[in-house]
Amino acid sequence: MEDCISTSALLTTDGVPLKQSLKKAERKNKLRAFLLVFPLLLFIIVTFVMPIGDMLFRSVDDSQINGVFSNTFNEYKKWDKEKDVLPPDEVYKALFEELAYGEKIQIGRALTRMNYSKSGWKSLIKTTSREIKKAVKKDELPKNYKEFLISANDKWADPTFWYAMGQMVNNTTPIYYWNALDRTYDQDQNVVMQDEKRRIYIKTWIKTLKISVYVTIFCLILGFPVAHLLANLPLRYSNLLMIFVLLPFWTSLLVRTTAWIVMLQQNGVINGILVWLGILSDDGRLQLVYNETGTLIAMTQILLPFMILPLYSVMRVIPKSHMRAAQNLGAKPATAFWRVYLPQTIPGMSAGGLLVFVLAIGYFITPELVGGKDGKLIGHWIAYHLKTTLNWGLCAALGAILLGVMLIFYWLYNKIVGIDNIKLG
Amino acid sequence: MNVTSQSFVKFEKIDKSYDGEVLVVKNLNLDIAKGEFVTMLGPSGSGKTTTLMMLAGFETPTNGEIFLDTKPISKIPPYEREIGMVFQNYALFPHMTVEENLSFPLEVRKISKPETKEKVQKALDMVELGNFGTRFPAQLSGGQQQRVALARALVFEPRLVLMDEPLGALDKNLREQMQYEIKHIHDRIGITVVYVTHDQSEALTMSNRIAVFNDGVVQQLSTPDILYEKPENSFVAKFIGENNTLNGMVTDINGETCTVELDNGFGKVKALKINVNEKGDKTQLSIRPERVTIDSTNPEANNFEGKILELIYLGDHIRARLNVCGNDEFIVKVPNEGSFNHKEGDLLNLSWNPNDVRALDI
């Protein structure tokens, strides 16, 4: 029998090789299956794979400036920094030509990029360009390009500018990632921390992680009893409770967030009640909104259903007899809960926890509205650079780091709990 | 012998209601002796599981008291009752291995590790699952899970073991095999068992005594043979085993026996007077199918004719459905001795001994 399988190919009754026949028979099914999933595949590629790929590409892309100053950068690479203080004449010549004959819009864009590496580039190039244009107009090409440029602006004799150019001569650059982590290059092109007052991202990253962890923990603490009630109350009560849990889903996020502002502001409902009850004095009203506290409260409430629902779906299928059995075997209710019930809810806790954490870490609208000055998360800076400074490279780098952080947490989660343990319903 | 001093578990005037309107258990009085295997048998909704849950401590009696070893236990929480229980769906903890499931009751009792290990192994050996300790419940078959549940209920040496339809989820063969196994374990370790089931053959196989429940009331509490042969009311007669019924009215009472005039003028039957009081009472007569003889006459009384409606060949016997005195569902079991050669539509002469007919309530 084994011989038959291993040595000679099996034949069908009609004498066709079995494999070939099977392939033919299955071909239509395979094709149909593929056609059925094809739209979804296309959808995922267009809406998920491509944008993320584009983002990752943009976060390191430096090709625009390399297109504008290709000759300059080529000559620049030949400069031996040990031997000469300033780059050779050819670099100055190439720069002159590329500024003189280059496309204005492209040069403008490149200038923005140059300023990310070192401030001062923009004005330097602009003043130089003016001189170059004049000279070209008069048809007086300089004999010595180096001298011409230095006379146009003496910063061309400053090696720090030339050193800074070294950051741009490759098609890819890590500068956006360094910037996203509050780092920059010093004169000798070493990566160093930004000035004290310009460090904003690391602080924000830590705050984002901290608030996400807190929100996850608070959601777990608040959601666990609710999910337990949902799973164990008689149907008519649990249905009502379920509506209360789902109601926020049917209300606009913006409405809920503004409602929190109404509730939490200094003349708002909560402060009002506390003052009325005499717990707070009128001038001792709590600052509950436009700070981290506000972000924490509002985000916890808004993300709570994402914790409750997975927990509920897991708790619903834990037989009630388990708690009874544990008590029957001699465990006090607390022990029974801790040793028998709680371990069985881990899949729900981890699914809810991961869901809430991942949503919280990239949350934007709520912290933006209730966060005030110090309750803003990393999403704020991504939006800021996307819309205001148009520094898309930095945007992409921030986004890529966010993606990376999530993947790290996912990996950790898989190591500790195991991804097979996740259960959404 | 004095029953009260003997009784290990005693239900005294137990009433139970969930909603204050309907009594699920009505005035239950039940004594169970030490080492006894008592089964509560009844259709679903008859109050048997509620009774068991009250004994385990998961439900509180609305009235009355339950005594265990002469001490009232209504105020003792379930985790201090020292009563083992096998649940309907086993209630094995899915996140623990078989060993961990078994050592759980020992751990919460703070029993030392080596002793725990020894007891767990002993319990596993008892149910012949010695090598399955490291598996998880989901990796076991239904029958194996059932044994683990049994071992877990016994491992901490409880005073009493309760079983709530423990074999309900098993297929027929396995169920029968487990019935014998549980019975043998009971015989071996001599523990008191209170067993709940709706399967009468299960109850008959395993129990010392059976309490037949219906409508929250114990209809009869007896040994299996008495329940089958001497049912005290028509519910028990119908619920235990197969049963032919004929309705009529008592016309004469003579000591232990009585004469019953069948409805619609089908004749008179002599029967044992069980659950009738006086002349004129309506009664239902109960006759077991195997106590009806064919092709012979009884010199005293009770000779009737029946028309064969259906014959079913069952190997060791032939099951005949007849029309007797207007009852189309009259069953007779004819032993397969090779001499039965009637066909459907034939008339049969039937007779039965007055001692095999019981005049019960209607």
Structural notes for this entry:
The complex is a heterodimer of chains A (425) and B (362). Chain A has 21 helices and 2 strands. Chain A is flat. The longest helix of chain A is centred in the first third of the chain and has 41 residues, at 18-58. Chain A has a two-stranded antiparallel ribbon. In chain A, helix 13 packs across helix 15, helix 15 (292-316) runs antiparallel to helix 18 and helix 16 (321-328) packs across helix 17 (333-344). Chain A is 69% helix and 1% strand. Chain A has 3 domains: 12-58; 64-173, no CATH class; 202-421, MetI-like fold, CATH 1.10.3720.10. Chain B has a 6-stranded mixed sheet with strand order 6-7-8-3-9-10, sandwiched between helices. A 5-stranded mixed β-barrel of chain B has the order 11-12-13-20-14. The chains are: A mainly alpha (425), B alpha+beta (362). At the A-B interface, helix 16 and helix 17 of A face strand 6 and helix 3 of B.
What is this structure's SSE topology?
The complex is a heterodimer of chains A (425) and B (362).
Chain A: H1 2-6, H2 18-58, H3 63-68, H4 70-76, H5 89-101, H6 104-117, H7 121-137, H8 145-152, H9 159-165, H10 175-180, E1 183-185, E2 191-193, H11 201-232, H12 235-246, H13 253-264, H14 269-276, H15 292-316, H16 321-328, H17 333-344, H18 346-361, H19 365-370, H20 378-389, H21 392-416
Antiparallel strand pairs in A: 1-2
Chain B: H1 3-6, E1 7-17, E2 23-33, E3 37-41, H2 48-56, E4 63-68, E5 71-72, E6 83-86, H3 98-108, H4 113-126, H5 142-155, E7 160-164, H6 172-189, E8 192-197, H7 200-206, E9 209-214, E10 217-222, H8 224-229, H9 234-239, E11 244-254, E12 257-262, E13 268-273, E14 282-287, E15 293-294, E16 303-313, E17 317-324, E18 327-335, E19 347-351, E20 357-360
Parallel strand pairs in B: 3-8, 3-9, 6-7, 7-8, 13-20
Antiparallel strand pairs in B: 1-2, 1-4, 4-5, 9-10, 11-12, 11-14, 12-13, 14-20, 15-19, 16-17, 16-19, 17-18
Helix pairs in contact in B: 3-4, 3-5, 4-5
